[in-house]
């Protein structure tokens, strides 16, 4: 046994001497070229190809890294996914504005996945970063990244579609894990510290379609319409239409219009943008607000008949102009026009939003700057609204919110108190 250890020590000494000799005799450039040549020979004989996805691309965060991290967290936490059994050590995280705990790969661990019948392997590589000199943006102490291993024969079949699938799945997980937000526009279009004209708070409204007291057939119709809209990306793309839809909720006060909006947001998992028109001064500000809204959101204008003066477009103004009926033009804003500062019904407000600006906001070119948006208008007096605002394509579905009948009251009492009316 002693001779074995002596021989091993001698061999280690010879290897160390050879390594020192190689570093002394062979220049670094030649060693680097030999290493690259060895890697190329290895890649030629290997049946796999490798792709690295680093956390930071230069000085910017790599969005694909975040998408892969979210996707693998769902795969690792799924009990029905065979990929979950390939990793015995997972990390737990809880993100900002999130009520869910997500799983993730631990440092230098690997996870297998199957896509369209093809098996791939992910490995989470974490290495210490070399000490950095002065930088305006200090980098993390650790260098993180994912390595994707795919069989060469499967590369042209799944690589692009697999990455697209991961990105889409990550967006879905992000929306599911994040708490929904309720936005409101700042006065005069002023920007917050991040340069956004919207201020937000967590949206915790408990209203759902199960708690709404309304006609079951009408409720089922609305839910089916919302579901078709959310799943209708291919339809809107095939027909060349913007992926948006408009709902008009009208009826007497106190009939649940706001609760209906909350139920729609909870049903689809969308954020809500509560647009206060009286805080918007011009059509240009209105367009800028629309540009700063995100996809998969509900844009709400409540009591639109009371917000600004949009009801007298067909009446001649002080210079004898009469608006057309197609919504393409309307009374011009100004000192004597509707909505101008001298309008007695405007109470001195400098708001100069026109009907044309609002129609372009909901159905013009600017309404196509995002996708999967729902516009919801509410009013107590539908007869006061201009017909151009109500036509299909702008307000696609009109929902009358009426007072409760005896059946609805009985349903409410049963849910609240657990008793049935006699």
TrEMBL record:
Gene3D superfamilies: P-loop containing nucleotide triphosphate hydrolases. Residues 316-349 are annotated as: Disordered. Residues 1-16 form the signal peptide. Residues 243-405 form the AAA+ ATPase domain. CDD domains: RecA-like_BCS1. GO terms for biological process: response to stress. Belongs to the AAA ATPase family. BCS1 subfamily. This is AAA+ ATPase domain-containing protein. It comes from Artemisia annua (Sweet wormwood).
């Amino acid at each position: 046994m002693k001779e074995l250890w002596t021989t091993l020590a001698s061999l280690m000494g010879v290897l160390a001497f050879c390594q020192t000799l190689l570093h002394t005799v062979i220049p670094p450039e030649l060693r680097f070229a030999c290493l690259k040549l060895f890697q190329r020979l290895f890649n030629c004989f290997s049946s796999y190809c490798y792709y690295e996805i680093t956390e930071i691309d230069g000085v910017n965060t790599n969005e694909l890294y975040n998408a892969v991290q979210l996707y693998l967290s769902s795969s690792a936490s799924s009990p029905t996914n065979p990929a979950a059994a390939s990793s015995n050590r997972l990390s737990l995280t809880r993100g900002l504005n999130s009520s869910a705990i997500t799983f993730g790969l631990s440092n230098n661990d690997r996870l297998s996945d199957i896509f369209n019948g093809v098996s791939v392997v992910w490995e989470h590589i974490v290495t210490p970063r070399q000490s950095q000199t002065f930088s305006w943006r200090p980098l993390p102490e650790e260098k993180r990244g994912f390595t994707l291993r795919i069989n060469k024969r499967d590369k042209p079949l799944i690589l692009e579609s697999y990455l697209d699938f991961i990105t889409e799945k990550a967006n879905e997980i992000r929306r599911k894990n994040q708490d929904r937000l309720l936005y409101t526009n700042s006065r005069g279009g002023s920007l917050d510290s991040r340069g956004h004209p919207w201020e937000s708070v967590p949206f915790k409204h408990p209203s759902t379609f199960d708690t709404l007291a309304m006609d079951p057939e009408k409720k089922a119709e609305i839910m089916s319409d919302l579901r078709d809209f959310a799943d209708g990306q291919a339809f809107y793309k095939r027909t060349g239409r913007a992926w948006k839809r408009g709902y008009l909720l009208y009826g007497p006060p106190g009939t649940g219009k706001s609760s209906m909006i909350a139920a729609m947001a909870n049903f689809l998992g969308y954020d809500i943008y509560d647009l206060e028109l009286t805080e918007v001064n011009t059509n240009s500000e209105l367009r800028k607000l629309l540009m700063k809204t995100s996809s998969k959101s509900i844009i709400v204008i409540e009591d639109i008949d009371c917000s600004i003066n949009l009801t007298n477009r067909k009446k001649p103004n002080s210079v004898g102009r009469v608006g057309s009926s197609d919504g393409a033009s309307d009374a011009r804003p100004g000192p004597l026009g509707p909505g101008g500062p001298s309008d007695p019904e405007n109470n001195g407000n400098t708001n100069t939003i026109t009907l044309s600006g609002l129609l372009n906001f909901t159905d013009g070119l600017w309404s196509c700057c995002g996708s999967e948006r729902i516009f919801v208008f509410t009013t107590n007096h539908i007869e006061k609204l201009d017909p151009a605002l109500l036509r299909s394509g702008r307000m696609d579905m009109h929902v009358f919110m009426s007072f409760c009948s005896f059946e609805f009251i009985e349903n409410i009492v049963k849910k609240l108190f657990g008793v049935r009316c006699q």
